[in-house]
Specification:
Layout (H helix, E strand, L loop, with lengths): L2 E5 L14 E16 L6 E18 L6 H6 L4 E4 L5 E3 L6 E6 L5 E2 L5 E2 H25 L1 E2 L5 E3 L14 H13 L4 E3 L2
Parallel strand pairs: 1-6, 2-9, 8-10, 10-11
Antiparallel strand pairs: 1-3, 2-3, 2-5, 2-7, 4-6
Helix pairs in contact: 2-3
Length: 187
């Protein structure tokens, strides 16, 4: 059986990677959160075990089972195998998948801002895969909205940033307002 990953953040945005065999999926028993970790100047999105929780994302095949490129992209994260009953997907074949999460010992209290350019990429992926309701579910199933959001949209700091359409940007801004996120101007 081919090896797969479950992406729940920027990997949901298909324009940020070349994993062509990606399918919409969901995982139970995990929840997303923004965290601070050593080696990252801004907050990162991670997942943590959460009984009864469910998050949506994409499941995609790791070509040839070669995890090296994906592990490099997800530096600072550790892979965890997902139990087959916890993974629902639209792939036309059985899937064994792993999820990336920041190790608990590497997490620190959330003291750094979330980059808006990072969140834009993530929410653009959710809007395109799951529509506006899916983007709303992303917000509802992610913890850490007390962290400020740095508005770097004009000069993106996130390395895989993407340009949003006017409607996508307006939706992201409205979703941030819905969780009372504090948006800071960039320097």
């Amino acid at each position: 059986m081919a090896q797969h990953f479950f992406g729940y953040g920027s990997l949901v945005n298909r324009t940020t990677h070349g994993y062509g065999r990606a399918h919409r999926a969901s995982v139970t028993g995990w929840r997303r959160m923004w965290r601070h970790t050593a080696g990252h100047p801004y907050a990162v999105l991670t997942a943590h075990p959460a009984p009864g929780a469910r998050i949506e994302g994409l499941v995609a095949e790791v070509p040839g089972g070669d995890w090296a490129a994906l592990d490099a992209r997800e530096a600072g994260y550790r892979r965890h195998p997902l139990a087959p009953p916890d993974l629902a997907h639209e792939a036309p074949h059985p899937v064994a998948a792993q999820i990336y999460a920041v190790p608990p010992e590497a997490e620190a209290p959330l003291t750094r801002p979330v980059l808006l350019s990072y969140l834009d990429v993530v929410l653009q992926g959710y809007l395109r895969e799951f529509g506006p309701a899916g983007a709303e579910r992303f917000m509802a199933t992610t913890d850490g909205w007390s962290a400020p959001v740095l508005n770097d949209r004009a000069r993106p700091r996130y390395p895989r940033h993407r340009t949003l359409t006017g409607d996508e940007a307006a939706t992201v801004d409205a979703l941030l307002a819905s969780v009372a996120a504090r948006v800071l101007p960039a320097d």
